[in-house]
Amino acid sequence: MRTVTVGTWKKLVPLLALFFATLGCSIAAVAQTIPSGAAIDTEVGKIMSRTHANGMAVAVIDHGKVGYVQAYGIRNAKGDPLATDTVMYGASLTKTVFAYTVMQLVDQGKLKLDKPIKDDLDNSLPTYGPDPVFPDKYGPYKDLASDLRWEKITPRMCLTHTTGFNNFWFVESDQKLHIHFDPGTRYSYSGEGFIRWRQTENAKCELFVKLPVYDSYPSSGMFCSRK
To answer: What is the pTM for the complete model shown?
Structure first.
């Protein structure tokens, strides 16, 4: 199988869609014919100009082998050039890696998608303080003390964005964490949902100790420790 993966500094998803569209072919067609490096360079230039993207990186992987890698534009406000070895902020692209690993553990019988996350916590979620490394980003769980609906949240709800949380607590008008609808009843994109479950003890230890990214997460020891 042939795939084209794209990493970008700004507006990744729109760029990815535009990349396939401007090549004048469907994803299925891309799977049959890999464009040349020159063609990719030309289209990337058009995309960056059209979307005002500061930087973009492209990797073409053909049958498991890297066929083409190129970086374009700048990587910071100082104007330093983006390079092929520049470490870029993955943001929510990591949700795909997380979800893929979760499903592997589900297949192995190590995780149950419909088991409430409260069962994997040593204490009630509202008793946990904010993340010690990123206190202004993750937490405050105490806001859920009066809303027991958090106890119904399962890994499946976290993965499918049906927890009831907003994307993040800090976008709320009162800067508090809220459950806006009964968990599992509707869809609403939420980074909070992924964070809530990642920080449950079993999920966190099982997943992140097995991944190379574990040691790069400063908050990895907040809810569990490596054994």
So the answer is: 0.63
